[in-house]
Predict the structure.
Amino acid sequence: MAQIPPPRPTASAPPVAYPGAVTPASLQRTTDHLRVLSICTWITAGLQGFGVLFGLLYVGLGLVFVNNPPGPPASAQGGPPPEFFGWMIFGVGLVVVLLSTTMLVLTMMTARDLSRHRRRVFCIVIAALHCLGFPGIVLGIFTIIVLCRPEAKLLFDRGSATR
């Protein structure tokens, strides 16, 4: 009977990266993506600050119309009193200021949390709220995509453990 020679030693194959595997390179890439998302979120917060300023402009304009109604008295024209329109403009401005300020504060908190790798679910919720408007929809979608990666979950678990 013939003897079978033992197998020759071969060079070991490089490890195969599976789609769900977390590697140091993928962790670094996700960390870089979170840093860029944090910067973009700070920029979005700055743009939302302009929304607050526009709301304040409407509040001021409404107060001017309430205190100095333009044109002849309303009884001469037969329409509603001009003070009513002033209060309407004031109310719209006040709603814009309140909503813009709330989103501004939440966006700033999200930007800080993205850079510190904390409160992942909070960041996902605010990213979903960003998807309701333009240009925040692009930022919201990319933030949700990055935060749903296993590497991001691992980074945020580490970040919450170091508190």
About this structure: The two ends are 69 Å apart (CA to CA). The chain has a mean pLDDT of 84. The helical segments are 24-67, 74-77, 82-116, 120-130, 136-147, 150-161.
